[in-house]
Design brief:
By secondary structure, the chain is mainly alpha-helical. It has one domain (about 15-355). Helix content is about 55%, strand content about 5%. It has helices at about 20-30, 35, 100-105, 130-135, 150-165, 170-185, 190-195, 200-205, 210-230, 235-250, 255-265, 270-290, 300-305, 310-315, 325-355; strands at about 40, 65-70, 85-90, 100, 140, 145. The strands form 3 sheets. A two-stranded antiparallel ribbon has the order 1-4. Helix 9 (about 210-230) packs across helix 12 (about 270-290), helix 10 (about 235-250) runs parallel beside helix 15 and helix 12 (about 270-290) packs across helix 14 (about 310-315). The two termini are about 25 Å apart. Bound molecules: zinc ion.
């Protein structure tokens, strides 16, 4: 089986274009035979598990992609908004429909980068992560303090998934697990576990006007690069995830126990990637992100997304093609580690399910 997600005939094109989280989840899932073989589950209404301790952003609406109507054909290479797909989806659960658990894991893996974590007040320091969304999706140390709660986000959603499965709402069990896997993948991204190299912090300590476009351009530039490679069907990324997930499945270890070393491992790769972006694309890329308005009411992630197309033009300019080899190599190593964690997680849940059925 040699699909790259966007060419998989089991998935309707109404769900495309596809984004990095979906590719990561898709390749990791393909390796887990016990997950791929699980029978379809009926769509059910949201049981709102844990909504008191884990509020959902006020502007979020659960969309049910099982009920779709294809209305357009977007160009995947130039699509940067998670909410714009080829299809339109229902906000009511289509209770007559069923779906395979692995598909639930894939198609809901970008949901968390829309509204569920945005527009909340979670902590007085959340501005440094760009708002409540970043607060739940990152965790890094800066000047002796810790910012963001992504490991906690992951553990909670994993528990919600377990509770939903135990209560008989398998559909939402897998959908919560998809959200947990999103946080887990974020924790394997260098820019979610470290904000900036120490040297840079001291240089720009008193000038956030200068610092924000630099940090944003490198972080978002890296995301744009990874996503483009997935959409091109870049074999090394696929191989890395398949291999990693296979190893995770075989190891039968506990994701929670591996979490700390997983984060430390990718944190070590941060500076290299950061300085590569500064040296290779420098001013040209930073200029793209000068458009960001620090005082805007918009979520930081939403603002950086608006700069993605221009960032892609800089990074994938022909003159940079040979330099990208460095990023290709280090990213394949990163994705192997991400795949291993995802494989461990998916195997844990599908094995438990298979013991029961
Ligand atoms: Zn995220």
């Amino acid at each position: 089986m040699d699909f790259f997600l966007h060419d998989d005939p089991r998935l309707p094109s109404a769900w495309a274009p596809w984004f990095s989280h979906e590719y990561i989840t898709y390749f990791s899932a393909q390796t887990i035979a016990g997950l791929m073989a699980l029978p379809q589950v009926p769509v059910k209404p949201n049981p709102h598990i844990g909504h008191q301790i884990w509020p959902v952003g006020p502007n979020h609406v659960d969309l049910y992609k099982e009920n779709y109507r294809e209305v357009r054909k977007l160009d995947p290479l130039w699509s940067f908004s998670y909410s714009e797909r080829n299809g339109e989806f229902s906000s009511e659960p289509p209770l007559d429909k069923t779906i395979e658990p692995w598909k639930v894991l894939v198609i809901y893996s970008t949901e968390l980068d829309l509204n569920p974590d945005s527009d909340l007040y979670l902590h007085k320091n959340q501005k440094i992560t760009g708002g409540s969304h970043g607060w739940r999706h990152m965790q890094f140390r800066l000047l002796g303090r810790t910012f963001g709660i992504a490991p906690e986000s992951f553990r909670l959603l994993m528990n919600f998934a377990q509770m939903a499965l135990e209560s008989g709402n398998d559909y939402w069990g897998w959908r919560y697990l998809s959200r947990a896997a999103h946080y887990l993948a974020d924790l394997g991204n260098p820019f979610h576990v470290k904000a900036l190299p120490g040297r840079l912090l001291f240089k720009y300590m008193f000038s956030s006007r200068k610092l924000v476009p630099i940090v944003s351009s490198v972080h978002q530039g890296y995301e744009v690069y990874v996503e483009r490679r997935f959409r091109e069907g870049f074999p090394p990324f696929r191989e890395a995830l398949l291999l990693g997930a296979g190893e995770g499945q075989a190891a039968k270890s506990s994701v929670s126990e591996l979490l700390g070393s997983y984060m430390r491992q990718v944190e070590k790769r941060h500076n290299e990637i950061f300085y590569f972006f500064l040296d290779q694309f420098g001013g040209e890329l930073i200029n793209v992100f000068q458009k960001m308005d620090l005082e805007s009411h918009l979520d930081a992630a939403e603002q950086t997304n608006m700069c993605s197309a221009d960032a892609a033009r800089v990074i994938f300019n022909k003159s940079n093609a040979s330099a990208l080899g460095f990023l290709d190599g280090i990213t394949a190593e990163i994705l192997f580690d991400v795949g291993r964690m995802m494989g461990t997680l998916f195997d844990q849940f599908s094995s438990a399910k298979n013991r029961k059925v």
